[in-house]
Amino acid sequence: MRTVIKYVKPYLFTALFALIIKAVSVFSELAIPKMLAIIIDENVPKGDMEAVLQNGALMLLFAVLTFLFNVIGNRASAHVTGWIARDLRSDLFKKTLSLEACDTDRIGLSSLTSRLTADSYNITNFFARIIRLGMKAPLMLIGGIIITLTIDYRLALILIAVLPLVALTVYIITSRSVPIYNSQQQRQDEIVSRIDETASGIRVIKALSKENYEKRKFSASAKALSDKEIEAGRLTSLTKPINDFIFYMGLCLVIVVGAYMAKTDGEAASGKLLAFMTYFTVILNNMIMMTRIFVQASRAMASASRIEEVLLIPTEKSEPCELLKCSESDSYIVFDDVTFSYGSGKPALENISFTLERGEVLGIIGATGSGKTTLISLLLGLYKPTSGNIYIGGREIGEIPREELYSIFGVALQNDFIFSGTLK
Questions:
Q1: Backbone angles phi, psi at 382, to 5 degrees
Q2: Residue 325 falls within a domain, yes or no?
Q3: Confidence grade of residue 329 (pLDDT, cut at 50, 70, 90)
């Protein structure tokens, strides 16, 4: 997550501004129930209409300020998350262009596509929640508890007893949901891969009448994804019902205890009870908002680990060096006992040795899958030999900068491409 968090730094000022604005809105929002209690318990019993109007005007002012602060904070949050998404996707895309062919094969094109889209969305959505609620929700929680303690410590004890139950529920569900989300993203990669394979090979599929076979393969992948989505949904869907149950049980206790206090203390406790119930609702709602942040965090952490896996892949830097002149006696291309395998599979090429002198032409003939393309890929430096060495002009291919290596070769691909513009 550290690699992803650094994308916030360029926009830290705007993010802090949004957090501060949202924090300021907390004070105006928390003041409204307190003003209501003063009107009911102090102004109305005395018949002081002037004080009622003044305090009512203050409540209206606090409501307007809360609205304005929330709008400003949300707009700033939208700008920050948009910028973060732009930078993250841009760097991730640039990284995919510089990956070695073996890294691209290991991760998979479908997985890279999923990380550029779904994973980056999960992370920016998490940052949006943090900026909008990361400061506001805890302050509403702490500020509400402090105010309830000043209203009546006996009722506040009920509230304080309820909060650990909510926190425990969130912890258990969040800790169990992270591995499920990881598995869900892998299944999503498979779906993208299936779609890409089908779209690119649709002519072959139709020519060989393999439509039903491809449908069965896609249905199996879709079912695996839906099973994981259902599993994740079942687990995370428990959060709100459990928290609501705890919330309403606590609210019932507050009403029962408050009713007893109103009976013993008289009419003066009615405004205090109403204000406390309002704060109780505000506190529990913000606690639930914090639980949603943690649920979103579990998905964001899973996505961040997948994105960091790509961003942290070391990229070989081509250092400028002088081109060594080769003597006429030097063999220009030499394969010295080269063996290569894709990943941990069987060798695609094994113990290949040949020498190609200057001016010579070599034709390579073989069946599909015999290793012709693999040999050319090794010569272009797209892959590194599993064993053995390749020399070009007397230099080991790993010592030649990428730009210089590509300037030596001209490659004619077997697929036809139509380019716009003209050839000059």
A1: -70, -30
A2: no
A3: very low
Q: Residue 248 sits in a domain of what CATH number?
A: 1.20.1560.10
Q: Report pLDDT digits (tens) over 152-164.
A: 788 788 878 888 8
Which of the two residues, 89 and 38, has the higher pLDDT score? 89
In terms of domains, do 19 and 68 share one? yes
Q: How far is CA 172 from CA 178, 229, 283, in A?
A: 11, 18, 21
- Quick check: is 416 in a domain? no
Cα torsion angle, 41, 43, 44, 45, sign: positive
> What whole-number distance in Å separates Cα of residue 304 and Cα of residue 126?
11
Domain range for 382 is: 333-408
Q: What angle do CA 256, 260, 263 make, to 5 degrees?
A: 140
With contact defined as beta carbons under 8 Å apart, do 353 and 335 qualify? yes
Do both 267 and 354 map to the same domain?
no
> Is residue 423 one of the residues assigned to a domain?
no
The pLDDT score that the predictor gives to residue 417 is 55
Give SS3 for 349. Answer: strand
How many C-beta neighbours within 10 Å does residue 69 have? 21
182, 213: one domain: yes
Q: Per-residue pLDDT for 316 more than 70?
A: no
Tell me the torsion sign for CA atoms 307, 310, 311, 312: positive
Q: Do 272 and 373 belong together in one domain?
A: no
- Summarised one tens digit per residue, pLDDT across range 373-421 is 888 888 888 888 888 888 888 888 888 887 777 777 777 766 655 555 6
Residue whose pair of structure tokens reads 């709100």 in the numeric block:
240
**Domain count within the chain:** 2
Q: Which amino acid is at 259?
A: A
Structure confidence by residue, pLDDT tens digits, 103-120: 887 787 777 888 888 888
3-class secondary structure, 390:
strand
